[in-house]
Sequence to fold (415 residues):
Amino acid sequence: EFHSIILRSSSRLTEPPVIIGSSAALDCCSRFMSFGRAFKQTYEIYIEWVQERGGLLVNGTWRPVEIRVGNDMSEAENVRAVFERHVHDGVNLWLSTYSSGLSLVAADVANSSGSLLVAHSASSTAITRDRPTVFNVNPPARNYMRGSFEALAASGIGTIAGFYEASGGPRAVCRPLQDLASEYNMTLLSNREIPFSANGSVVKDLVAGLKSERPDAVFGCVYEQVCHEFVEEMLEQQFEPKAVIFTVCVTSDSISQLGAKGRWLTGVTSWLPSMPHQSEETGFSAAEFGALYRSKYTEDPPYQAAAAWAAIVSLGRAVEMANSTEPAVVSAQLQRLDLETLYGRVSFDEHGQTPMNFKAVQLQEVGMPPAVVSPLHKAVAPLRLMPSSSERQCASEAVGDSMFRSLLRVTIMWF
Fold:
């Protein structure tokens, strides 16, 4: 099904709209449907803002905006079909879907068709590499874990181990562990690849192997299913590292599902509503965007929603700077862009990649939001080392899941 969100900034305008194409999981049940919903809702807020503004100003003329989002159902072949449909329809200004793997499919179509793509929910630098009309507002994989190492070093961590799912995004995020360990005078004991969506005996063997190595800290570059199973298996086997850092699992859904078992986990994020960012284009602060999103949709925006907002606002600004909707001309303006957004400052290097860094956050107290623990100069609390598994089990039994649902509902990191 091809779903379309359409805005004309004024019923009196007769100028052709600036059309932006995208894809997302708009179905009820596929793997990335929660992110598809977040993207759709973010685009709706943008549509309302641009409606109030009067449109995009191109060559002295206010033009309405139309966003077309194809339902990709979290599948690569559907992503390709949606963007090929955009090419067929003459739509060549695009926003990406979710994940590195699916965004890479969109990037391939953009590169072959001469279309422009702004990715916002992917970590792999392969998406923009050697593709002059492809950009990414999401920080590159190499920037995800650095802040966590800074916090770990300050806490006296000496040995680490990592594991990652056999998928582009997780693999790219865990790849720099050896270099970071050397930089921070730590020893990397192992960095295991596990099957995509691993479960059961694979996770059991993984935890057993890590337990035998006895690392001070463990890094998991995985999606949520594996994270949940790993946490459960940690308790089952009484595996007791001093810190566990995930690329997921500190989300509102995870908090509800894991309950007190999720306490003391650390995650990485590029954005929280509490961060002091304000958009020079729209005037929205991060907090105002979070409050507006929450009031409209009764859920808190994940960081991917803020990234999608930064992507579409940056694209709109570049169209106005270019006074054109031609991809090559707009791309040239994106390359020059230096824009403060509610997601942070957006600019692009020679490879079309933003230089932003990720922050490390930790769930430390019941009923409190995740605490920023790194970078240290922006930390609101030091990293707390994890108590023993028996102490965690006691906390799990003592604290009801309902109390954890009151935690700040913030999505930390996907790919």
Remarks:
- The radius of gyration is 21 Å.
- Residues 2-136+273-347 form a domain with the Rossmann fold fold (CATH 3.40.50.2300).
